[in-house]
Specification:
Structural class: mainly alpha
Largest sheet: none
Strand content: under 5%
Shape: elongated
Radius of gyration: 42 Å
Helix content: over 70%
Number of domains: 2
Number of helices: 3
Length: 117
């Protein structure tokens, strides 16, 4: 729906001229004002139907975002579980390496001591 504003440029120019403005300036001012009024009224305003469609689209987007959040929560939980199992395995490996190192040190010390005593 476009709205039209009636603007009498000739009358506007005559008023400006009677106020002492030069004719060239008055015509330029009238033309500029006419252009602004035309542009400001030529844009289409949203109707109730447009707003209703936007609300439906927004509802769909919200639903999609909610589904993505749920998927993200599930993936995050899965990753945490995987990290926990990996860290548990790493800890077990480190304990084994600790005991292997301790055994090697004790064996080396006992061989060293045996060679001197």
């Amino acid at each position: 729906m476009t709205m039209t504003i009636q603007f009498d440029t000739l009358r506007y120019v005559e008023k400006l001229r009677s106020a002492g403005m030069p004719e060239a300036h008055a015509k330029a001012s009238a033309e500029a004002l006419s252009t602004v009024l035309e542009q400001s009224t030529s844009t289409t305003l949203a109707t109730k139907e447009d707003i209703s469609v936007l609300k439906e689209d927004l509802g769909k987007v919200r639903t999609e975002v909610s589904a993505l959040r749920n998927d993200l929560d599930i993936k995050t939980s899965e990753l945490r579980s995987e990290f926990r199992s990996e860290f548990t395995q790493i800890r077990a490996d480190m304990k084994l390496m600790h005991w292997m190192l301790a055994t090697s040190v004790v064996t080396g010390l006992s061989l060293f001591a045996k060679s001197f005593f």
